[in-house]
Design goal:
Layout lengths: L16 H9 L4 E5 L2 E9 H4 L2 H6 L3 E6 L8 H18 L1 H9 L3 E9 L7 H18 L1
Parallel strand pairs: 3-4
Antiparallel strand pairs: 1-2, 2-4
Length: about 140
């Protein structure tokens, strides 16, 4: 894999309120857990869910990282955990991107949700994210 493919661009981040509502609001989403993370994902049709203008700028896989304030009151700790999860995803995103690129007119939405009240080292988080991405890649 080349270096420029390992970047996490703005288009790969799930920011659209409409797509977030699609991921969490309606049925059809799947979830799996590898403690301390929970991954909620959904494979959608690009044409039916989003407009043509949005599809051009955004990638086929979009990611959202959520660390609830309930678990970490201080923003410094929440930001650290989000940074660790995004870095682990950036390194191992090829497990899902290769599978989704094979399918035409499909887009994958993934949300990583933090479940633990404790900080965990980056190696463990990387293993769990890798595990989740492999399992998602097998199911889509």
């Amino acid at each position: 894999m080349e270096k420029h493919e390992e970047r996490l661009r703005k288009g790969e981040r799930l920011c659209s309120k409409k797509l977030i509502d699609t991921l969490f609001g309606t049925s059809g989403s799947h979830a799996m857990t590898a403690f301390p993370l929970k991954a909620v994902y959904r494979l959608i049709d690009c044409k039916s869910e989003t407009s043509a203008a949005e599809t051009v700028t955004e990638s086929k896989v979009q990611v959202l990282v959520s660390v609830p304030k309930k678990h970490f009151k201080r923003a410094v700790k929440r930001n650290r955990v989000k940074r660790q999860v995004r870095e682990a995803y950036r390194k191992h995103k090829c497990f899902v991107t290769l599978r989704v690129n094979d399918q035409t007119d499909k887009q994958l939405l993934i949300a990583f949700i933090w479940l633990s009240n404790e900080l965990i080292d980056s190696v463990t988080i990387e293993q769990r994210v890798c595990n989740l991405l492999q399992r998602i890649g097998e199911r889509i």
